[in-house]
Design goal:
The protein is mostly beta strands and 336 residues long. The protein has one helix and 25 strands. 3% of the residues lie in helices and 46% in strands.
Length: 336
């Protein structure tokens, strides 16, 4: 009712009867839970149990470079702002000094980034917060979240694959054919080469030489998030981990299997692809031959998708030009 003045602390009432969920992670940077870094990526899921809870994680940075971390609260549907939890997050260097913090007043998510000059154990801590713009307080700012991080270490790694050549000759005819050659060169940014073809034919009275060279670029899977086989809840799918935009000619695929008696739910957190060409598809089964539940591209965040069985198969593919900010989606499981 207007100008309500009969306030009630529901959190206090419920917690007095049931108590709070046990704390899952340490509350200070000094005692942060260690995360495993694989291929310069790490992730975690957890719960902020109350408005006073803090969760802290530590990860190893192997050298100078940059750190990028995304923290996302659980979304029950595409039309909500993130349920109860509004995240404030802080990044610490090995000396536990603050190097970045984020309390976005326009969303309930948080993004951290920093350029660092030394290797060591860095920490990230998060907690629930309020919002001075809307406004609302930190009361009951609690709930589930997902954390994903990417490390970019200074230095350049280049991988080159040499072509294979087969030559046949006779007394009057020489034919040389170059096999298909794939070359990928990667620095801290992604470079994609479009396919080109060139054909040269020369003819004389005694010798004919025909040479055809074809260069192609393999489908890039650089930005695809892991794991690609998802069997646990609260996993974030991302088309461009460690990249501001996804790559050209990129393909990703994820297989989702819920426990018996459950079915998977896909909630889109962000969505921005090249309309009509870069497509995110969800199939109601174990492969791309199953019925299509959702096929989307463009800048409009799709509605939440629910599988009819335990399994979903998810793909993303981009063409050879024009990229965007990509897709993040939360995988959860609910009873059938």
């Amino acid at each position: 009712y207007p100008n309500a003045n009969n306030k009630e602390d529901d959190v206090a009432i419920v917690s007095a009867a049931l108590g709070f969920r046990p704390d899952d992670f340490a509350d200070t940077a000094a005692s942060a839970a260690s995360l495993t870094v694989s291929s310069n990526r790490f992730s975690a899921t957890g719960v902020i149990e109350s408005s006073s809870d803090v969760d802290c994680f530590a990860f190893s940075m192997p050298g100078a470079g940059s750190i990028s971390i995304s923290l996302t609260p659980f979304f029950s549907s595409a039309d909500t702002a993130g349920n109860n939890l509004d995240i404030i997050a802080t990044l610490y260097n090995p000396s536990n000094a603050v190097i970045d913090t984020d309390n976005d007043q326009t969303t309930s998510t948080a993004q951290l980034s920093a350029s660092v000059t030394a290797a060591g154990s860095y920490k990230v801590c998060l907690r629930g917060t309020g919002n001075t713009a809307t406004p609302y307080s930190a009361y009951a700012s609690a709930g589930q979240y997902a954390l994903t991080g990417t490390l970019s270490v200074s230095g350049t790694t280049t991988t080159t694959k040499a072509p294979t050549t087969t030559t046949k000759s006779t007394t009057s005819t020489t034919k040389s054919k170059a096999t298909t050659t794939t070359t990928k060169s990667r620095t801290t940014t992604t470079t994609t080469t479009k396919a080109t073809k060139s054909t040269t034919k020369s003819k004389s009275t005694t010798t004919t030489t025909a040479t055809t060279t074809t260069t192609t670029t393999q489908a890039d899977q650089t930005g695809c998030s892991t794991p690609t086989v998802i069997t646990s809840t609260n996993v974030v799918i991302n088309t461009n981990v460690g990249l501001q935009i996804y790559g050209n000619h990129q393909t990703c695929a994820w297989s989702v299997t819920a426990p018996n008696g459950m079915r998977p739910v896909i909630t889109f957190l962000t969505f921005a692809t090249e309309p009509n060409f870069d497509v995110f598809t969800i199939f109601d089964g174990t492969s791309a031959s199953a019925a299509v539940l959702s096929r989307n591209s463009g800048l409009t965040r799709p509605a939440t998708v629910r599988g009819s069985t335990r399994n979903l198969f998810i793909t993303f593919s981009s063409d050879l030009s024009v990229s965007s900010n990509g897709v993040t989606a939360l995988v959860t499981f609910v009873p059938k």
